[in-house]
Known about the structure:
The complex is a heterodimer.
Chain A: E1 8-19, H1 58-70, E2 78-79, E3 82-85, E4 95-98, E5 108-114, E6 117-130, E7 134-136, E8 145-147, E9 154-160, H2 167-183, E10 196-206, E11 216-219, H3 224-243, E12 251-256, E13 261-267, E14 277-278, E15 285-286, H4 289-296, H5 303-312, H6 318-325, H7 328-340, H8 345-363, H9 374-385, H10 391-402, H11 408-415, H12 423-436, H13 438-445, H14 452-462, H15 469-481
Helix pairs in contact in A: 1-4, 2-3, 5-6, 7-9, 9-10, 10-11, 12-14, 12-15, 14-15
Chain B: H1 6-15, H2 20-32, E1 39-41, H3 44-59, E2 70-74, H4 101-108, E3 112-117, H5 157-164, E4 171-174, H6 181-186, E5 190-193, E6 214-218, H7 221-231, E7 261-265, H8 275-290, E8 294-298, H9 306-321, H10 340-351, H11 354-367, H12 373-393, E9 399-403, H13 419-423, H14 430-435, E10 439-446, E11 452-458, H15 464-477, H16 486-489
Parallel strand pairs in B: 2-3, 7-8, 7-9
Antiparallel strand pairs in B: 1-3, 4-6, 5-6, 5-10, 9-11, 10-11
Amino acid sequence: MFTWDKNWEVVIGLEVHTQLQTQSKIFSGSSTAYGAEPNTQASAVDIALPGVLPVMNLEAARLAVKFGLAIGAHINQRNVFARKNYFYPDLPKGYQISQMELPIVGLGKLDIETEEGTKEIGITRAHLEEDAGKSLHEDFHGQTGIDLNRAGTPLLEIVSEPDMRSPAEAVAYLRKLHSLVRYIEICDGNMQEGSFRCDANVSVRPRGQQELGTRTELKNINSFRFVERAIEFEIERQIDILEDGGSIVQETRLYDADKHETRSMRSKEEAHDYRYFPDPDLPPMILEDSFLDEVRATLPELPTQKRQRFIDELGLSESDANVLTAEREVADFFEAAANATKAETKLVANWMTGELFANLNKSELSIDESPISSAQLATLLDRIADKTLSGNTAKKVFTGLWEQEGEVDEIIEAKGLKQITDTGAIEAIVDEVIANCSEQVEQYKGGNEKVIGFLVGQVMQKSKGKANPQMANQMLKEKLDA
Amino acid sequence: MTITTLAQLSADLDSGKISSVELTQHYIDRVDNSNHNAFISINKEQALAQAKAADDKRASGEASSLLGVPVAQKDIFCIKGTQTTCGSKILENFTAPYTATVVENMHQHGVVSLGKTNMDEFAMGSSNETSYFGNVINPWSSSTSDTTALVPGGSSGGSAAAVAAQLAPAATGTDTGGSIRQPAAFCNLTGIKPSYGRCSRYGMIAFASSLDQAGPMTHTAEDAALLLNTMAGFDAKDSTSLDVPAEDFSAQLGDSLEGLKIGLPKEYFGDGLDADIAELVENAIKEYEKLGATVKEISLPNSELALPSYYVIAPAEASSNLSRFDGVRYGMRTEQYSDLVDMYTKTRTEGFGDEVKRRIMIGAYALSSGYYDAYYAQAQKLRRLISNDFTAAFKECDVILGPTTPSPAFAAGSRTDDPVSMYLNDIYTIPVNLAGLPAASIPAGFTKAGLPAGLHLITPYLQEAKLLNIAHQYQQATDWHTQAPQSVSNGGQA
């Protein structure tokens, strides 16, 4: 657990770039699919031929508005595209079309769970912009290749207020945001492919001081783990400098995950003057009330609403509800299994948060990649409910399902795990155990009732785990108490 | 030799008096034998193939008014498979892989693209002297006693010279601050700058996006209407294109001007206006009065703010629009460079001319952090004031009339060292672009030295059809527009 000298207060704000999952680019008709051969998804507009013009893809606006509504933000029904001017080979026009003064989404908020309870994190704004292409340095000896497939992919840049006070809060916010954009299906959240990218603004100040300390901007932190580690490193670096009587330079710093350090990329003095101005090729975007209503109607149940429903209607504990609503796919899996099984909802929650998550974590799989489907889990729990399986034999079936050995009933059959509920069969084993374990029988009769557990264990062992343990327990007691 | 109009050629093609292939070959030959330097390139095979296709269509019974008529295209328009330079070295080796919407529309109507005309580099200039491909000679040069070569105006100087020298019966131009109207005035032509948004800008290489507009350059208003009919129209590929129903710009030709209220802005008749031009404009006013119009003085009080506003907004937009010419993907790249920044610097230093560099620097400065409010934001405020002036003026009149330029065509080289005197050429035309209005320049007669003068007509937004009729009625009553320069009468030699 990371700690620092609590005389220092940490202030963190995050800028998150989410790639909006539209079919085509924000200002051209080219496909946004990932992984195509270089420059096969780059049209005349994307490569910025002389004379071409951008045309707004309304689907991107729709997804941005969806996000704004989901965080209860103000939607700027008149918003303006601006040009951000700088030269770079993967920026074909020599400017990026973005939004400056009038972004599509204004002030909103997101609640995160912290150790001290729920905390509100302000979201300053979210604006639409186009992604740049990629520079490829590996494949060209002494030269740089440019792939413009990604150029023009729609991004929503979500800027938080400097409301976070620890690396853990920053990660909690980032996870919450990551969950939300996937819930409302505006972004696939794939961090490896760069669909969800984060920059962090970090500063420290003596506790109690009103004004903010000088901040640095951390780039290249594209996993939850790296965000946490990069901020931790930066906090220590800044406190060390300040405690040595130095001062922080406002600059952009790059996080190097291999060396676990941040290093200076460019200072404020070297910062670009982007010469922002409204893009004369794109008139201001006007969003009618009807458009907002239309988008509102497409909003799914949001995580906080779902969490409350799981507690109120399904009787889950707060902690189970938190875990099972953290990701939409998990919640969907849970609801599908709960609806399909006759077992109690609590049992579904226990098996998911216990056995299923343990196995997924161990194999580093997401819920979507689970070898066990929600329907299979539901059937498994049905077999517990109808007493075909005990808790222990159910785990063996679970393992069989995980290993793709077949369906639930096939595995029970193949492994001979069907619980013995035939009174006569159990009685025969119980009698055998009583006859073989005279020592323990005497102890029980002498008043040591705990020893019944040992005797039940013997019955289970002799039945190869198939005897119904409740029946064995009851029968043993009846015979010994007689 | 008198002028040949599109209307006449259309009739000749209809009657079978001439074929499109013969007509196209006729103009190609005239271009080959001319020395005005009006064209940067001609794609003869493509032009003749289009002409042949047009003849085939006519033979099969299809006909539209300009089917098979050759028209010269300003080299600012991308045309698939043709060299498209925008008058710049940086695009000398650029062959367009697609066609501009305006040209595509013309092709749909069967217009034959004759070739690409010379122009000021990236449309920045008023004399065609900033072209990388050399000066264009105004065909009216030798009509004066002075033998100095005169400029044709700019930036559509090649288009103006081509039509004036009858190397093409009509041409396209583009107008950001006067680039159609000023060369039309200098070369005795009819030039129309339509309302902003009438003609798609897709495929027209951008100078200043909020001001650029394509339009026709012809001998007569009737021809301008015919050509504009083939150029204009909504285009989903241009977000600033006007989504209004298609209109026949010839529809009002023939309407009476009885009761037309003409406004004369006092600011357009002040100091700096050439006395001969002032007199020719006075004569034109009298002509309009004879046609039944009434005249009153009006005021456009913020006119003097137009030039400073324009010379912030246009360069600001240009500085950004021209960033794509970086040597990375197409066009010129410097031969030797040490790293990326060196490549950018050398490519753009070698590839752009002085005027383009000057405007990029002005524009980048006006947009830079700390100066934006003082320059760009302020210029936008002035732009609104200027636009409001017109709105107020049109409450008092139907059309605003004045001179197109303060002076007639000048000698090549006489103003190149003094950008401000060059910029003053466009003092009457620039406010129209800032307001997005339609305007025309039409021939108004000749100065004592024998040089053409232009009459400037401005109407409210989207009133091109009315504007064209106001020009047409004047041309029914006068014959200035039928005059050809001596050199042309003598057989096409400058």
